[in-house]
Amino acid sequence: MPVSEPNKIYQEVIDALIALHRLTDGYTPNHEDQTAELAVMIGRHLGLPAERIDVLHMAAQVHDIGKARIPLELLTKPGRITSDEYGVLKTHVQFGYEILNKISFPFNLAEIVWCHHEYLDGSGYPRGIGGDALPLEARILTVADIVESMSADRPYRKSLGMAVALEEIQRQSGSRLDPVVVDACLHVVQQHNWRPVTN
To answer: In what residue span(s) does the HD-GYP domain sit (predicted)?
Structure first.
């Protein structure tokens, strides 16, 4: 996606991080790319200005960059994971924030990534924050991440289907998820027949 001139250097930094991540993990960067595509569509539908779309896109492209610190055998483990393994998986958000916070972005990219598993009602992780503490871009990323994750094939399971994914975000709308963002997501998925690309 073309970015505005002031953000070109930051997009190049993001591209370098993605290239590094692809050396060890063939799945996660593809998931991030598709989540970014859906997030941008939602952001445009909501009327975000171009500069904020750039930031949303970049944040979505690296929202799981912290998984580079998680053992690949855990990321691709078939079947159920233990509570201890889930605890390890959850650390990817903090790792991602720490990686991105080392770069002097002139916008809240690291914060958006830090919040992508937080929920409006405060039931998410890693900080359990909610409400107005969550940037709109993070709320968009959370919804796009859920839809892409459920509707795409994962290393450890087949797609659950788009209908199931959309039902899930509707179920959580107004409690965990921003209802305005959920409505926008439903609109763009249906209007554009958006589906994740199967690798």
So the answer is: 6-199
Q: Of 108, 136, 103, nearest to 120 (Cα)?
A: 136
Q: How far apart are CA 80 and CA 1, in angstroms?
A: 36
Per the domain annotation, does 152 fall within a domain? yes
Provide the number of structural domains found in the chain. 1
Quickly state the pLDDT bin for 55 (edges 50, 70, 90).
Answer: very high
Backbone CA torsion sign across 146, 152, 157, 161: positive
| Mean pLDDT (whole number) for 126-155 | 95
- Whether 127 maps to a domain, the answer reads yes
For residue range 100-111, list pLDDT tens digits in order.
Answer: 999 999 999 999
Reported confidence tier of residue 191, pLDDT bands at 50, 70, 90: very high
Distant-in-sequence, close-in-space partners of 49: CB < 8 Å, separation ≥ 6 = none
Whether 60 has a pLDDT exceeding 90, the answer reads: yes
Single-letter amino acid code for the residue at 161: G
Q: Is residue 197 part of a domain?
A: no
Strand partners, 173: 177
* Inter-helix orientation angle 136-151/28-45, to 10°: 130
**Global pTM value:** 0.94
Q: Residue 172 is part of which domain span?
A: 5-192
Q: Indicate whether 198 belongs to any domain.
A: no
What CATH number should be reported for the domain holding residue 111? 1.10.3210.10
